[in-house]
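hey can u run this one w/ nicotinamide-adenine-dinucleotide bound, need the structure tokens asap thx
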Amino acid sequence: MRLQGKTILITAAGQGIGRASALACAAEGARVIATDINGALLESLAAEGAGIDTRLLDVRDSAAIAALAASLPPLDGLFNCAGFVHHGTVLDCDEAAWDFSFDLNVKGAYRLIRAFLPGMLEKMKQDGSFGSVINMASIASSVKGLPNRFVYGATKAAVIGMSKAIAADYAKVGLRCNALCPGTVDTPSLRGRIAGAADPVQAEKDFIARQPLGRLATVEDIAPQVVYLLSDESCFVTGQAVMVDGGISI
Ligand code: NAD
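ok here u go:
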């Protein structure tokens, strides 16, 4: 069991990559605290994944995050997965849309790290364990500009910068922080984006065409990277933007 004895918290674990990651971490022996804003999704996750502890959590709610941190034992791993995909160019992005995306995609992760990092660092000091933080970025970021991903790409570039800064600050005490950069992953929200396109059949073809491996990723393609980065197998990996992108960044 690669995560035996570890306590791991995941945001946006109700569906998509976060859910698959929660199930994969539990299967590797972790105590998983799976959080999401959507209670119905958490109920179905709890029914599917034996031993997964579910908690309602909005990553935009600082008070709720502080209360959750106070109610839980210290973490070994934190996976900030929550994020929103705004569709459009700079001219489609008004200030409210900008603020919303940055608040959820960047400040959400910042809030969780501020609340949980002190406990992680203290636990590491006391028992010699290794703490690991993963922040969800994307290939659409400082890695690559993609059409109609203006504010999304800006937020995910910020997530990479934030992850490198945290990695630099805490490397000396052994706390690792990495950013995960998937390509296009078949999740409920991607299906929504395809269904909402003017020509959904063409939209799906276009999403597939931009990935050299010739298909969409499944959530099961991404979850093993999460397990790896949270496990001690990756104990010499920090400050990286880890691509799991079907070759988009080649
Ligand atoms: P998704 O978009 O299908 O699901 C998102 C989940 O987030 C839902 O369960 C939703 O209830 C939850 N959520 C929404 N607002 C929240 C909030 N304020 N607080 C807590 N939870 C909230 O999942 P996905 O497509 O797997 O995306 C997950 C992450 O992966 C996002 O950060 C996304 O940007 C990133 N990502 C996705 C892809 C992709 O192609 N799907 C590619 C690269 C990166």
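Residues 186-216 form one domain. anyway lmk if its weird
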